[in-house]
Design goal:
two-stranded antiparallel ribbon, 70% helix
């Protein structure tokens, strides 16, 4: 069968959304039929993603592939335009993988199961659309629509402060989205032609001051979702109240939307402004790493501790993006995928531990490893991955960012030494708070009050299967990074060359080029 012209991405996006609309009419009394139906839909959509990737994606092609474009509002050049390149394809694969496992993780949900699985499937298609759409206005719409399921999943199935957490989430993210809308409209109407096509917008010749304003607006919008300090406070609250499957979606996919958008729009579409803002991104990345690591160390709530750990690790993405090197940018993309896998695994295990102990306070735990040996082993392994143990994906990603930034010729030696030192401090802090967390949960004397009031049963096969599925790519990428990097290398090399061309000193011959200090570079006309 000739599948070259089949609308793969449109089908992958719309299939779970269309399937979710059938959930209200499925005969089901206790939710068992709905959950099996949702799992089958998730598996089928993930299978479609893998098949489209295997048959239609060329590793050596840096441009858009699986491209589809259909007229929407021709008068404004609005189109349903989707495609995948090296920046989006890894995250589309990650979305299908994590969401399918999140559906399986939601097996114990008994409260309003129809609505729960409806939201999960609708969110499935919306998240893939964020990574696939190539029209700025369409991007804004799917970005906004994706927020509604998250809000409801927090507000209905969350903890005691779920309404506060859900409201804070929607206010932060919707407020940031206004900058996307304003930026999209101003870029579309700038110049002689009106278009929302991302490739056409990237080719427009913007005035430098205008481009800097656009970059700042987009940075605020995506800083909320990444999140970048000080626009991060919604995340610990959301994680503090979410259930395990929602945790997996927040840590595994939602944070990556902010990182992806920074690469796609700020760096790729506004390279001249990126040359000015790159030092700012590096400083923000360092603040994320150090501040969030120290804050995580001080947390006594298990969910909030892991949430701040996520914020810390995403700081490396900013530094890799601002490195102006192939290795640094490649490490940033790898870090997004790696953190998606590791963050999803840790938060799932946090949920599994809470289901048994009914407490999130580390002071109330202790010695539970004796009764929950499988959970202890899985939690330890995933924590090792998070602290960048060699042989795990996190180690490779952070090492690439370290080396990529340290060897960059875009910054002065003094600035690089300071940044690398502070990054190393963050790397040292990570095992301190993670190992101390493991000690307080699993080691030492059992808390007799906890043991007497709770039934501390070990992991069931479903939970072991979910963690095993996540550990396979974590360890596989750790030992053989090319499994992932070959997907996006052609695109990141092309993007790095474009970013370097935006800095006159880097566009000159390397052996005679002066170093770029913390001051913004001189941008040519």
């Amino acid at each position: 069968m000739n599948t070259a012209n089949f609308p793969w991405l449109t089908t992958i996006i719309l299939f779970p959304i269309a399937a979710s609309l059938l959930i209200p009419i499925i005969p089901d009394k206790d939710g068992k039929t709905v959950r099996w139906y949702s799992l089958i839909i998730g598996l089928l959509d993930f299978a479609l993603i893998v098949y489209a990737f295997y048959t239609g994606y060329d590793f050596s092609n840096p441009d858009l592939q699986l491209f589809e474009s259909y007229a929407w509002v021709p008068q404004l050049d609005l189109k349903w335009s989707v495609g995948a390149d090296g920046l989006s394809m890894p995250l589309i694969l990650l979305t299908g993988f994590i969401t399918t496992l999140a559906i399986l993780a939601a097996w114990p949900v008994t409260l309003k199961p129809r609505l729960f699985y409806f939201l999960i499937l609708a969110m499935y298609g919306g998240q893939i659309a964020v990574f696939a759409v190539q029209d700025m206005l369409l991007f804004f719409l799917v970005w906004e629509l994706e927020l509604i399921p998250v809000y409801l999943l927090l507000a209905i199935w969350g903890g005691k402060k779920r309404q506060y957490a859900a409201t804070k989430f929607i206010l932060y993210t919707a407020g940031g989205s206004l900058f996307i809308l304003v930026g999209a409209l101003t870029m579309a109407f700038y110049g002689d032609t009106v278009t929302f096509d991302m490739r056409s917008l990237a080719l427009k010749d913007y005035a430098l001051n205008f481009e800097l304003l656009l970059y700042a607006g987009f940075l605020i919008a995506y800083a909320v979702k990444l999140p970048i300090i000080p626009l991060h406070t919604w995340l610990p609250d959301a994680h503090g109240e979410a259930t395990a499957p929602v945790h997996m979606l927040l840590a595994g996919i939602l944070l990556k939307m902010g990182g992806y958008a920074l690469v796609r729009m700020n760096a790729q579409m506004l390279p001249d402004a990126h040359a000015y803002f790159a030092p700012v991104l590096v400083i923000l990345g360092v603040v994320n790493i150090i501040y969030a690591a120290l804050t995580s160390f001080a947390q006594r709530n298990l969910k909030r501790k892991i949430a701040y750990s996520s914020i810390s690790h995403m700081g490396f993405v900013l530094i890799g993006l601002a490195s102006f090197t192939d290795l640094g940018l490649s490490g940033a993309v790898l870090q997004m995928v790696s953190h998606g896998l590791i963050g999803a695994s840790l938060f799932f295990l946090v949920g599994a531990t809470y289901d048994r102990t009914h407490t999130l306070m580390l002071d109330e735990m202790g010695g539970v490893g004796k009764r929950m040996q499988k959970i202890f082993a899985m939690f330890t392994t995933c924590s090792m991955a998070s602290l960048a143990l060699p042989g795990m994906s996190g180690f490779v990603a952070e090492l690439m960012i370290f080396v990529g930034f340290a060897t960059s010729d875009a910054y002065s030696s003094t600035f690089k030494v300071i940044v690398v030192f502070l990054m190393a401090v963050g790397v040292i802090l990570t095992p301190i708070y993670l190992l101390s967390m493991l000690r307080e949960i699993f080691y030492g004397k059992e808390n007799e009050e906890l043991v007497s009031h709770q039934k501390l049963i070990d992991a069931e096969p479903r939970e072991v299967f979910i963690i095993a599925c996540l550990l396979v790519p974590i360890i596989g990428i750790g030992f053989y990074p090319k499994l992932l990097t070959q997907i996006y290398d052609a695109t990141t090399v092309q993007l790095t060359a474009r970013l370097r061309d935006s800095v006159p000193t880097l566009a000159q011959e390397k052996e005679t080029a002066p170093k770029l200090s913390l001051n913004a570079p001189t941008i040519g006309n």
